[in-house]
Specification:
The protein has helices spanning 14-25, 57-71, 94-121, 143-163, 188-196, 206-217, and strands spanning 5-9, 30-35, 48-51, 76-79, 125-130, 168-175, 228-231. By secondary structure, it is an alpha/beta fold. It has a single domain, classed as NAD(P)-binding Rossmann-like Domain (Rossmann fold), CATH 3.40.50. The structure holds nicotinamide-adenine-dinucleotide.
């Protein structure tokens, strides 16, 4: 990551925060977080925390234009910010559908469209879109979340195929059950079932998905594009 400038959405906490801190530990020149929430324990962190709503085109303009003005380039975009609603289709309201699709999927359209011209101009870049194991298989809940996370698989392949010759790589990451603020209030029986479904017999921690994203973002993954990397303790292996 030496010398690279990265934007990670939703990096105030959780997996996004672990990614941002790891990028800096691995030599990134600058890592910017764009999040609606204030950062958890910002003291001592070298992440540049910016207030940003990923559903807002104006916020994307402000944050990305600011990064280009300050650093002259943007090498890595991690579309990580998301929310989850657990309702199955018959209990999902139109408002929930719109909210989840806006935050989890439209954000990737807005963000990628904003950064791609800069990546093309500078000869390349890496985009990682954070999906889920629920973007690869069905569960009897979370209708809107599954819609967004499933679409992320294909929009990632689309960007990869459209902009490969520009030197831009794009991949999706599919975490399994990772301990983070997103699921700390999740029902115990759901957590127990998720852990029981892994072959490692335990949940993951943010650092474990951060290392996978680090690989996809870095030049070590120079021949890796349009693929989906599953980090789930073997949940989907069985
Ligand atoms: N935790 C898991 O078990 C798990 C499993 C599979 C996939 N994921 C995915 O991993 C990613 C990271 O989630 P996490 O587990 O760290 O949860 P998290 O809730 O801690 O992190 C999500 C972050 O996104 C931010 N965010 C929400 N709405 C936003 C908006 N409109 N604009 C900007 N930022 C916004 C939140 O403030 C938060 O900081 C998400 O894409 C999530 O869907 C998580």
């Amino acid at each position: 990551m030496k010398g690279k400038v990265a934007l990670v959405t939703g990096a105030s906490r959780g997996q996004g925060r672990a990614m941002a801190e790891l990028f800096l530990a691995e030599g990134a020149a600058a890592v910017i977080s764009g999040d609606v929430l204030d950062p958890r324990e910002p003291e001592g962190s070298r992440v540049e925390f910016q207030k940003m709503d990923v559903t807002s085109p104006e916020d994307w303009d402000r944050v990305v234009d600011g990064i280009i003005a300050a650093h002259g380039r943007l090498d890595v975009l991690i579309n990580n910010a998301a929310v989850c609603e657990y309702e199955p289709i018959l209990e999902t309201t139109l408002e929930q559908w719109d909210r989840v699709l806006d935050i989890d999927l439209k954000s990737i359209f807005l963000g990628s469209k904003k950064v791609l011209p800069h990546m093309i101009d500078q000869g390349g870049g890496s985009i990682v879109n954070v999906s889920s194991i629920w973007g690869l298989g069905g569960v009897p809940s979370s209708f809107a979340y599954q819609a967004a996370k499933g679409a992320i698989l294909n929009v990632s392949k689309n960007i990869a195929t459209t902009h490969g010759k520009d030197g831009v790589r794009c991949n999706s990451l599919h975490p399994g059950y990772i301990l983070s603020p997103m699921n700390e209030n999740q029902a115990e029986d759901i957590n127990a079932a998720l852990i029981a479904g892994t072959v490692l017999g335990r949940p993951g921690v943010p650092r474990e998905t951060a290392y996978a994203v680090l690989f996809l973002a870095s030049d070590e993954a120079s021949y890796v594009t349009g693929t989906s990397l599953v980090v789930d303790g073997g949940y989907l292996a069985q």
